[in-house]
Amino acid sequence: MSQKSYTQSLAKSTGLSESVINAAWPTWWSDEAQHSPSAQAELKFSLARKLGLDPMSLISDKPKFMWSKNAKFKSFSGDTLNESPAISSFGVSLSKLLFQATPDSRSLRGYSAAAIREALLANTEYNFIQLPDLLSLLWGVGIPVVHLRLFPLAAKRMSAMCVGANGRSAILLAKDASYPASITFFLAHELGHIILGHLPDEGVVIDIDDTDQQQMFLKDEEEREADRFALELLTGDPDFEVLKVGHGDNAKELAEKALTASQSRAVEPGAILMSYGYSTGEWAVVNSAMKYVYQQGRPVWQVINTLAMSQLDSEALSDDNNAYLMAVLGSGS
């Protein structure tokens, strides 16, 4: 059983991407192991643990995902019946690895968005909340946050996912961005799902990018609640909105107004631009304005995963699991 042939077979039967299966392939596998029944069995157990598959189903060559029922998909446009088990089981199994490498969590249930905002503002050098502030809070209370560089499906379907397992929570981000404002909102939104009790036990809430204005009107009550939580946390106002006045501004003018307003409103300027984008749909000018606000773009996932790797206790995991986790986090990319 060669790695290539088995990877292709498993990808076909499960829908999982070959890249994530290859990343989960154990580091101890060798040419000699191909001819050992015990090694082949251990291979299947190893893959099952990482990918969220029932180990016995791999032994019988009838792959079945472990966690497929407690999943909430928000605005999901894919094949829910066949794709959701792969996404949710991958999320739960990855989060269980993250929990092994992080200290026990302290629950934030019962804390309001306003209280968390007040605490964060009291400990930041700026008068508004930025991505590093929110990341530090979450890691500090034992909620790991990572940005996926490998995905369970060949087509990336989600922007973010929060996961509940072992009585704990994790947040897995997937949307790429060169500027932090959108990712900060997604992170606050996922925290809202966790604190507001939307997250099923041993389950997931998966969010899809909703910058499309038509999708905004299709949100369910939990999505609206998580949006309001995120807005209150980041801006102080659950109904925060930036409206277009007159004929609108060019990118530079819009950026200057956002920078000025950020000081008086205690709101990060990128969040102001994002709100303008949601209210007007003028994302082209918003994206151009981001260049003036942040001066230089940088892949946000690198910021998130650099912090994650500094927080994870690699000694708590086997070498094999460490290698898999680093592959998913894009170590060395």
Comma- or semicolon-separated keywords:
5-stranded mixed beta sheet; 333 residues; single chain; 52% helix; alpha/beta; 15 helices; elongated
Describe the protein's architecture and organization.
The chain is an alpha/beta fold. The protein is about 50% helix and about 5% strand. It contains 15 helices and five strands. It has a five-stranded mixed β-sheet with strand order 1-5-3-4-2. Helix 6 runs parallel beside helix 10, helix 8 packs across helix 10 and helix 12 packs antiparallel against helix 13. It is elongated. The model has no long low-confidence stretch (mean pLDDT about 90).
Low-confidence stretches: none
Fraction of helical residues: 40-55%
**Total beta-strand segments:** 5
Order of strands in the sheet with most strands: 1-5-3-4-2
Helix run count: 15
Beta-strand percent range:
5-15%
* Measured distance between first and last alpha carbons: 30 Å
Computed over alpha carbons, the radius of gyration is 21 Å
Query: What do the pLDDT scores average to?
Result: 90
Instruction: Summarize the main sheet.
Output: 5 strands, mixed
